[in-house]
Amino acid sequence: MWRRVLPALLSCSVLAGCNVGPNFQPEKMKLPKAFTETAEEKPATPEEIAKTEKEMTEWWASFNDPILTRLVETAIKGNYDLQAAGERILAERALRDKAASAWYPQMDANAGGGDVRYSINIDNWPIRPGDPANRPEASMLTYGASATWEIDVFGRIRRGVEAHERSVEATIEGRRALLMTLLSELANDYMLLRVTQLQIQIATDNIKVAKENLDLTNRLYLEGVGNTLQTAQAQAELDSQIAAREPLKTRVSQISHAISVLVGEMPGALEAELKVVKPLPIVPAFPATLPSLVIANRPDIRMAEKEYALATAEIGVAVADLYPHFVIPLTFNPNASAMYQAFQVNGMSWQFLMMASLPLIHGGKYTATIRAAQAAAEAARLHYRQTVLNGFKEVEDSMAAWHDDIEYQEKLEKAAQDSALARDRARKLYGAGLIGFLDVLTAERTTLNAQNAEALSRLERLRDAVNLYTAIGAGWKGVALTNTTLPVSLDQQNFLARAIQQ
Question: Which of 37-46, 165-174, 180-189, 354-363 has the lowest mean pLDDT?
């Protein structure tokens, strides 16, 4: 018997190198050598590229803010969404290992025994083995093993494992994309927190000025120069300034809560610390060089490519179903009516075969599955191309905003200075009785608006930097996957797991 089976196994082993279906080929797109908004006159050197890569690894450090750096490090370790993404990677790896287990023989053992009773209401029922008196009751003992082994001749299992491997890779990139989004949201919230605190300081300064104006109008009124309308206007302006500051305080509390949750803490855990006023972070210098190749760091582009590879492997799985399946079944199942008979030759029962199956007529089910897989792969390819285009657009937009907002902030800063100067002159002229109080109010409100606009422009400058770093896919390199597991070991669940691959 072995002389017949072994040649068949050897033949299957030779054929097992065949993989049906298309092999994945990375999509080739014609990319520009550099971004248009960089205005580079010469290609970047390898040294410049290496310098940029190093700067981008921990881009948050370039803001020179120790609190922001510490918050980022805490968020990487403590954010629960990021930890959950790590667990999804572990789950995908386990599913890949499950698919790969089909390469190996699958074996199970069984044993049993007990009493059985047969029906005697059937004519010409044959004499039952082990029961010469033909009594309906009998004792039975059985034990044995069953095994099956699928020979992966046409690569159905290999394509399935390949698809799961691509899924693992796509999940890893998904975690990296989540990490980048987390860091971007955290940095933007932190910038907004500091700018809001600056706005509170501006509002506090304007409240002080409004109180001085109220004192001035009251003094002029007592001197017989002013009137009650002016004092009422001054009081209304002071009340308005005080009221306008309160929503800013609420915003600071809400941003503090959001940052606490992002780093994995309860909403109020960092509120006391973050409410301490600190200077705005420093806007970093524009990266030394940004060749278009750096966009390959973007996890969304990498994930789209992995999903395209996954869809391509699924075509191979569908095509392999059109080909024969080769399986080697093995059963060993002795039966006896007594313990001493259980190991006798007459009680032995076994089967060892080579089985092959080939789909014939299924109403187009398998070909329809192939067409669906092909369409899904083409959709994944087109999605990859669109993701690349969107990535370039985001980088170009971020660069344009970075360069344009520099001049925008400079103009608003000059406007704020000029408005403050006009306000001071208006107060002096009003005190001398040369202009009305309405002119003072107009100058006050213009100054307040200009100062708030200048503060928001500084926020935009900081956000431009964060958005550029995010757009070019910076920040995930060097951040290792945290393999968190439940506090229950698999080895503790079944002693066989320590000795046998299950």
Answer: 37-46
Q: Model confidence over 325-352: pLDDT tens digits?
A: 888 888 887 776 666 666 666 767 777 7
422-431 in b/e form (b: 16+ CB < 10 A) is bbeebbeebb
- Contact in structure between 411 and 435 (CB atoms under 8 Å): no
Please answer whether residues 242 and 209 qualify as being in contact, where contact means their C-beta atoms are separated by less than 8 angstroms. Answer: no
* Model pLDDT, residue 347: 64
Are 61 and 150 a contacting pair, CB within 8 Å?
no
Q: What is the mean pLDDT of residues 396-402?
A: 90
Strand, helix or coil for residue 109: strand
- Domains of the chain, by residue range, sit at 19-104+153-323+364-481
Token match 């990487």: residue? 76
- In DSSP terms, which residues pair with 143 in a beta bridge? 111
List C-alpha distances in Å: 169 to 40, 87, 422, 441.
34, 14, 61, 62
pLDDT for residue 2 = 39
Level-2 CATH architecture, domain 19-104+153-323+364-481 = Up-down Bundle (1.20)
DSSP sequence for 420-482: HHHHHHHHHHHHTTSS-HHHHHHHHHHHHHHHHHHHHHHHHHHHHHHHHHHHTT-S-TT----
User: Taking the model in full, what pTM does it have?
Assistant: 0.82
Distance CA 241, CA 361 (A): 82
Q: How far apart are CA 390 and CA 273, in angstroms?
A: 39
Nearest to 280 by CA among 429, 45, 124, 460: 460
Separation CA 221–CA 292 (nearest Å): 68
> Checking DSSP bridges between strand 350-352 and strand 335-336, what pairing results, if any?
unpaired
Asked if 26 and 164 count as a contact pair (C-beta separation under 8 A), the reply is: no
Here the tokens at position 65 are 């803010």
Q: How many residues comprise the chain? A: 502
Q: Which of 304, 356, 366, 21 is nearest to 159 (CA)?
A: 21
CA distance 142 to 127: 20
Range name among 257-266, 359-368, 429-438 with the lowest pLDDT average = 429-438
CA distance 11 to 13: 5
How far apart CA 476 and CA 373 sit, in angstroms, is 32
> Which uninterrupted H or E stretch holds 150?
strand 137-151
- Residues with Cβ < 8 Å from 472, sequence gap 6 or more? 56, 290, 294, 295, 297, 298, 395
Query: What residue type is 236 in one-letter code?
Result: A
3-class SS of residue 66: helix
